[in-house]
C-alpha cells in the first residue's frame, strides 16, 4: 500500500480486496481508494459520474472506490497499528465522517463485511464518549480493504482485527473532529497500540 494526499484528495494505491458503503460501492478488487473534498454546499445529480471524473483527473488507472466529504484533507487523521492503517476525515452535518481501513493482512469476504459493523459501532461509541448527541452524519461512508492472503476469518470486537479496528477508530474519530474544529494543517499521524 502506498498513499499520498493533497489539500483536496487522499489517494491510496495497492492491490486490494475491498468493500465500500460509498456511492458505487460494493465488494470488488480495486487498485485505488480515495477520499475527495467537495464544497460544503456541493450537490450533483450524478455523484457516481463525478467520482469517475475525479479518478480521471487524479490519473487513477484501473478500478477504484471513492468517497466524498466536505472536510479538507489537511484535517485528515491517519491511525496506524501493527498491520492496520485507518484514514479518517470527520466533520459535522453534511461534512461526513469517512473512514478507510486498510489491512496488510488479508480478510475473508465475511470479515470485510463484518468490519464495517465494527467500525460503525466504534465510531458511534467515540461520538457518544465525546459528548455528542448524534451517532453519525447523514452521509458517512466506510471502505475496508486488505492485501495479502486471507488470514482473518472474522472482524468482531473480540478478534485481533476487531480490537485493532475499535482502537484505531476510537482514537482517530475524536482527533479528526478536533482537527476539523481547529482547522489543523495536517495530516496527523498517530501510532495506536492494540
**How far apart lie the N and C ends?**
21 Å
How many distinct folded domains? 1
| Mean of pLDDT | 95
Low-confidence regions:
none
How many β-strand stretches?
11
Helix content: 25-40%
Number of helices: 3
Please compute the radius of gyration using only Cα atoms. Answer: 15 Å
Report the principal-axis shape.
Answer: globular
| Strand percent estimate | 25-35%
Structural class: alpha/beta
Walk me through what this model shows.
The chain has 194 residues and is an alpha/beta fold. The protein has one domain (2-182). It has three helices and eleven strands; from the N terminus they run E-E-E-H-E-E-E-E-E-H-E-E-H-E. The protein has helices spanning 47-57, 109-129, 160-181; strands spanning 2-5, 9-20, 26-37, 64-69, 77-80, 84-90, 97-103, 106-107, 141-146, 150-152, 188-191. The strands form two sheets. Strands 1, 2, 3, 4, 5, 6, 7, 9 and 11 form a nine-stranded mixed sheet that branches. A two-stranded parallel ribbon has the order 8-10. Strand 1 and strand 2 (9-20) form a beta hairpin. Helix 2 (109-129) packs across helix 3. The longest helix is centred in the last third of the chain and has 22 residues, at 160-181.
What's the arrangement of secondary structure elements?
Elements: E1 2-5, E2 9-20, E3 26-37, H1 47-57, E4 64-69, E5 77-80, E6 84-90, E7 97-103, E8 106-107, H2 109-129, E9 141-146, E10 150-152, H3 160-181, E11 188-191
Parallel strand pairs: 3-4, 5-11, 7-9, 8-10
Antiparallel strand pairs: 1-2, 2-3, 2-9, 5-6, 6-7
Helix pairs in contact: 2-3
Amino acid at each position: 500500500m502506498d498513499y499520498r494526499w493533497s489539500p483536496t484528495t487522499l489517494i491510496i494505491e495497492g492491490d486490494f480486496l475491498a468493500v465500500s458503503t460509498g456511492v458505487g460501492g460494493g465488494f470488488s478488487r480495486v487498485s485505488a481508494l480515495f477520499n475527495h473534498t467537495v464544497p460544503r454546499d456541493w450537490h450533483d445529480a450524478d455523484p457516481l459520474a463525478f467520482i469517475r471524473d475525479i479518478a480521471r483527473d487524479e490519473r487513477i488507472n484501473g478500478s477504484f472506490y471513492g468517497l466524498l466529504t466536505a472536510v479538507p484533507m489537511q484535517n485528515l487523521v491517519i491511525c496506524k497499528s501493527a498491520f492496520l492503517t485507518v484514514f479518517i476525515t470527520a466533520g459535522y452535518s453534511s461534512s461526513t465522517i469517512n473512514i478507510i481501513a486498510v489491512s496488510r493482512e488479508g480478510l475473508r469476504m465475511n470479515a470485510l463485511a463484518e468490519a464495517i459493523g465494527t467500525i460503525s459501532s466504534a465510531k458511534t461509541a467515540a461520538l457518544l464518549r465525546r459528548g455528542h448527541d448524534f451517532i453519525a452524519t447523514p452521509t458517512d461512508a466506510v471502505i475496508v480493504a486488505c492485501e495479502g492472503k486471507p488470514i482473518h476469518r472474522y472482524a468482531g470486537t473480540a478478534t485481533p482485527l476487531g480490537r485493532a479496528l475499535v482502537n484505531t477508530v476510537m482514537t482517530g474519530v475524536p482527533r479528526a473532529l478536533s482537527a476539523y474544529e481547529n482547522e489543523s494543517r495536517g495530516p496527523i499521524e498517530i501510532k495506536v497500540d492494540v
